[in-house]
Design a protein that fits this description.
3 domains, alpha+beta, OB fold (Dihydrolipoamide Acetyltransferase, E2P), Rossmann fold, 27 strands, 21 helices, binds 5'-O-[(L-methionyl)-sulphamoyl]adenosine, six-stranded antiparallel beta sheet
Length: about 650
């Protein structure tokens, strides 16, 4: 029976279009999956979307869409992108699907029942504007919100906690006993150092937003992101359902690999194994952590501009070119940089010159000297044959080791060693001189055979990487289907081939200056359009008039029971009745001094729950670094409109 291989990408946040940074993980897993397929494994490749949480709820609100509509749209867009990139996934899990929700709810209740999850109070810094909690270390200087820069206040919220501390020692032991559990080694060391500092229990539920999976036994709470997200690796396999055949087959199979970027290392190396330990599920996976694609200027992020999207590159340069660059340029264990120059150079030097040209020259010579057909010829040899064969054999062996170690960039580099060796072989054997001497015809055929055979091997090795070019290579060289398979990767399997009469270049050479400029413009263009999307401050009159702004009379005012910066006001809005507002003005006003005053408030905002107190609108106040002033009016009536 074939060995099994289960490989996963992280599930992506549908907060916007995916850029080449997050695309990388998907392409990497795709290449690994195709490699394992080629090696005869029974593979299962999972990817998907992480669709819950406050951020997604906010993005949807900004787009004036119900969250489900928003995530449906992005999920569809993402699936189209994967189709375009010929990603070979078997399943696309979405955390809003019923099959996932049910599993998460079961997991949560089970952990709660057995005491691994317990109720408590979460204390953090709350930004009223973003309605989000932050830890102290996430805040900007002066305790400001890292998202909007506004002041935050220290608040408490009811929350469930996952008992990480209980499993700290067990996890350290596990990591020690399984040296290949986290790769690269440097990432493992990071995790061990973190664990040694001691773990704090993890807050795993929220009561301040709805867009999530409800806790069955206490629906006031929604499961907070990580338990929800990480469980996808099980729910997609049917864990804990009547149909758990995939779970049995792949989770307990031969190899399980989670591939993630370095930013989500801790969640996968600590929270996830602890969840599994608590659930009594064996940790069968290994965790592979890759670095980031950066811009010259630093991190690739939408807010910094200059984000590069895969569609643009595929449209202008082709899918193989993008796949090749992404997989080749990010070295194992560290970060890589995307620059227009490096992208065009890789296409010109590696793909067009070294690889494409070798194929083109070989086919042209076979046509020119042997009417398109060569046969394995062993009688007349050259002094360079043996070395070429040896390099081919070593390349295959190294490639296998490197791919098995998930070192894809290095495996590609190895394939290029054979390409370079074959190019050198042409210079050494000088076929154009052999062609001049009738008596050297056997030697010439032998040389061309060696070149064709080297290229066939390269074609097999690159099958998981260059989807179109490897096919084109086999077709142009005339390699029969059976000799495109990995079992035939040994030098000498080919006995005879007939090449195409009209070879066409695999990769056209690009004009560096022109293309770099074009690419820079594309990136800048995208940056500009991103900016207008993100930094747009103009609001249409239509949008503005949607707000119902009214004069309101404060009938009662008290301190918030759980937050010292907040006041709770009951206001009279004339014909609209009374409303409760929670406002962050306690540092500047005493409750009593506000009673009886006429203030201005937005009264048709969706109600929110702020530390256990409902807020049904927003009190208007101006502020600067020194002070804050509520907008008071004098001679108007409660309920009068403010325009
Ligand atoms: N939703 C979580 C993952 C939950 S998995 C149970 C998440 N999503 S994400 O969309 O923000 O990121 C998905 C992946 O893209 C992560 O592996 C992240 O490291 C990767 N990358 C995001 N930007 C990247 C680069 N610039 N370069 C390489 N990978 C990058 O995190």
């Amino acid at each position: 029976m074939a060995k099994t291989y289960y490989i996963t990408t992280p599930i992506y946040y549908p907060s916007g279009k995916l850029h080449i940074g997050n695309t990388y993980t998907t392409v990497l897993c795709d290449a690994l999956r195709r490699y394992k397929d080629m090696r005869g494994y029974d593979t299962f490749y999972l990817t998907g979307m992480d669709e819950h949480g406050k951020k997604i709820e906010t993005v949807a609100k900004e787009r004036n869409l119900p969250p489900i509509k928003h995530v449906d749209e992005i999920a569809e867009e993402t699936e189209k992108l994967w189709e375009r990139m010929r990603i070979s996934h078997d399943d696309f899990i979405r955390t809003t699907e019923k099959r996932h929700k049910t599993v998460v709810q079961k997991i949560f209740e089970r952990l709660l029942d057995q005491g691994d999850i317990y109720p408590g109070m979460y204390e953090g810094y709350y930004c009223m504007h973003c309605e989000s909690f932050f830890t102290e270390s996430q805040l900007e200087e002066g305790n400001l919100c890292p998202d909007c820069g506004r002041e935050t206040s220290k608040l408490q919220e009811e929350s469930y906690f996952l008992r990480l501390s209980k499993y700290e020692k067990k996890l350290l032991d596990f990591i020690e006993k399984n040296p290949g559990f986290i790769t690269p080694e440097s990432r493992k060391n990071e995790v061990v150092a973190f664990l040694r500092q001691g773990l704090q229990d993890l807050s795993v539920s929220r009561t301040t937003f709805d867009w999530g999976i409800k806790v069955v036994s206490n629906p006031k709470h929604v499961v907070y992101v990580w338990i929800d997200a990480l469980s996808n690796y099980l729910s997609a396999l049917g864990y804990s359902t009547d149909d758990d055949a995939k779970f049995q087959k792949y989770w307990f199979g031969d190899e399980v690999v989670h591939v993630v970027g370095k930013d989500i290392l801790r969640f996968h190396a600590i929270y996830w194994p602890i969840m599994l330990m608590a659930l009594d599920i064996p940790i069968t996976f290994r965790l592979h952590v890759h670095g980031f694609y950066m811009q010259k200027e630093g991190k690739m992020s939408k807010s910094k501009g200059g984000v590069i999207y895969p569609d643009t590159l595929i449209e202008n340069y082709g899918l193989d070119e993008l796949r090749y660059f992404l997989l080749r340029e990010l070295p194992y264990g560290s970060d890589g940089v995307f620059t227009p120059e490096s992208f065009i150079d890789r296409i010109n030097f590696d793909l067009a010159n070294d690889f494409g040209n070798l194929l083109n020259r070989t086919i042209s010579m076979i046509n020119k000297y042997f009417q398109g057909k060569v046969t394995a010829y062993s009688e007349a040899t050259t002094p360079y044959d043996e070395d070429l064969r040896k390099v081919a054999e070593a390349t295959v062996a190294d490639y296998e080791t490197l791919m098995d170690e998930l070192k894809v960039a290095e495996a590609i580099k190895t394939a290029w060693k054979l390409i370079s060796r074959a190019n050198k072989y042409i210079d050494e054997t000088t076929p154009w001189l052999l062609a001049k001497d009738e008596s050297k015809s056997g030697e010439l055929e032998n040389v061309l055979y060696h070149l064709a055979e080297s290229l066939r091997i390269v074609g097999i090795l690159l099958r998981p990487i260059l989807l179109e070019a490897s096919r084109a290579l086999f077709k142009q060289l005339g390699v029969p289907k059976s000799l495109r398979e990995y079992e035939t990767v040994t030098f000498g399997e080919l006995s005879e081939i007939t090449v195409t009469k009209k070879p066409s270049p695999l990769f056209p050479r690009l004009d560096v200056k022109e293309e770099v400029q074009k690419l820079q413009k594309v990136i800048r263009g995208e940056e500009e359009s991103e900016k207008t999307e993100e930094d747009e401050t103009l609001v249409s009159l239509d949008d503005f008039t949607k707000l119902d702004v009214r004069v309101a009379k404060v009938v009662e005012c008290r301190n918030h029971p759980n937050a010292d910066k907040l006041l709770v006001l009951t206001v009279d809005v004339g014909d609209l009745g009374t409303r409760q507002l929670v406002a962050g003005v306690a540092k500047h006003y005493e409750p009593k001094e506000l009673e009886g005053k006429l203030v201005v408030a937005i009264v048709n905002l969706e109600p929110v729950n702020l530390r256990g107190e409902k807020s049904e609108g927003m009190l208007l106040a101006g502020s600067n670094e020194k002070t804050m002033e509520i907008l008071f009016v004098k001679d108007l009536e409660p309920g009068d409109p403010v325009q």
